[in-house]
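Shipment paperwork, digital attachment
Item: protein structure file
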Amino acid sequence: MTTTTLAVLVPLLPFLGAAAGLLLGRTAPGYVRPLAVLPTLTATVLAVLVAVRQGGGRAINAATELTPTGSVPVELALHLDGFAVLVAVLVGLVASCVQIYSTGYLRDDPRYPSYAALISLFTSAMLLVVYSGDLIVLLVGWEIMGICSYFLVGHYWETPEARAASLKAFLVTKLGDVPFLFGLFALAADAGSFRITTVLGAVASGALDHPTLIALLLLAGVAGKSAQFPLHTWLPDAMAGPTPVSALIHAATMVAAGVYFIARLLPVFAASAAALVVLAVMAAVTMTGSALAALAQDDIKRVLAYSTIGQLGYMTGALAVGDRGAAVFHLLSHGAFKALLFLAAGVIIHAAGTNSLAAMSRMRDLRSRVPDAYWTMTVALLALAAIPPFAGFFSKEAVLGAAEHAAAGEAGAVPGSAGWIVLVSGLVTAILTAAYATRLWLLAFRGHGAEAPDHGPQPVVMNAVLWVLAVPSLAFGLTAGLLPDWFDGHPLTPTLTTSVLGTGLALVGGLVTYGAWRHTTTLAARVPLGAVAAHPEADAGVVEAEAIATHAPAYGDVAYAPDPADPGRLLLGPLHRHAAAGFHLDAVYSALFVRPVRAGAELVRFLDREVVDTYVRGAGTAPRWLGTAVRRAQTGNVQTYLSVLLAGSAVLAVVAVLVATRGA
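Attachment content:
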């Protein structure tokens, strides 16, 4: 087969698997798991073959016109460059691991067939975004992911948290998609085509008339999809979905789509210095604010959710300084260790029976109950904290190195202010990232108090997936230096300055957090917190659904569940309460948008019921009263009718005489 044929099959196979899984889910349930795993796994193998054939060389383009649309045609186009083929491999790998993990995690879930089909459709949509060479086809995959996320986040629809989170995720991302759509049309109008290669050619020739406006409109969609400030609030709440869904959304799909989109169209954004500065500020606020929030969260999944937001801030920061190679490099390494973190968290939640770190800190020997999750999560947290030689060190230092070059004025047209903004915020976030990673590890695995509950061994497939993802979390950074062709031929070796600063700050953050933890543990009373008691025979998904339903502090202000052994409280001080609530951004949105909309809806309902309905009721009541009056006049007595007729004639005669007399 040709490379383009293989590339077409990569998103097509998961789509066919999703369709077949939905059709056979009830009639042939035995085929559901093979249909969930095998198409995605095969697509991953094909994605690897496409990457090998493409080899990081010249981009492969192929297109066929879908339908004549006039001056701006819509085409089914492929654009396979080094970034596309590598990201496709990541998507396939993480999706395959999630599907395999889910066969054990949700083995007794009655809604597993629809869940697995939606995961496959989600994967297919992301692969379509990655390989697409036409902006309209890319938009189709973009929107399908939004719909799938709504259903997957709301998988546990019995819980109000899951229902609210799914609706919030859908509405917030759609809020960004509206200007994103306008930006795509404006870009196509200026470039004369939706083809990405044509658009980039138009940018190179200076044919864009409104680059700043287009870039800012597109950034709104990216902020919603990739959970960047100020449209990031949906992502922490999305943790109400199953843990494998969180791993897929955070590691390889949905949130990665926005970063990948900017990387694909970076010349469009680079055409406007103002847009790059806006992107840099957005990245800086996102990464520092989310790191502070992560340091105050009690729910283990919400810690990882805010961590994802911060790492996405690193990626958008790299794009703000014009280095898409560093951005995609961090996207790839982050995808591996963040998927590992979420899937390991799922194992820990099943073992502990709760999402709460405060509860885990009061459980002794939890790490001995889940040795596979303990060791693999340790690897992933070291990668997250950017400790060498783990993958996160190389990719994060590539971002900081790019920011250093931009700050020094060595990045061409990139404003130096953007470089300084990204560099300073990146270094601050490095110390905060190491702090919340250390805090999570200490609270989850170094607890004291009652012995951790024993729910038996975890399913083999779940533990096996953890070790598969541990390999790239450890080794990807070491091998990426051998693949410069896939990254525009740009070397990704860390610079000395940022390496020393970044690693030094990470070590400081970890050591300070450890010292704070030692101090707080000597003062904490070891009284067991009300953890959820999971049954040994219970399905992991059921355990998580119970944890979501009963562990209220995980979805509210953690001040309601104070843990004196939490080093985050000591480190943040009075800022802790605000950071735990996400700096009250949801409350601000509620005051500015939700309450006015609800008040307007109440006003409309009042007008509809009390004004409009009054006219409608009156329009029906008047004829009814008239009919009643006429019905009473119908006595059936001929003499009465003749009397009324004569009286009426007399009245008319008198009126006629009076009118004639007045006229004379």
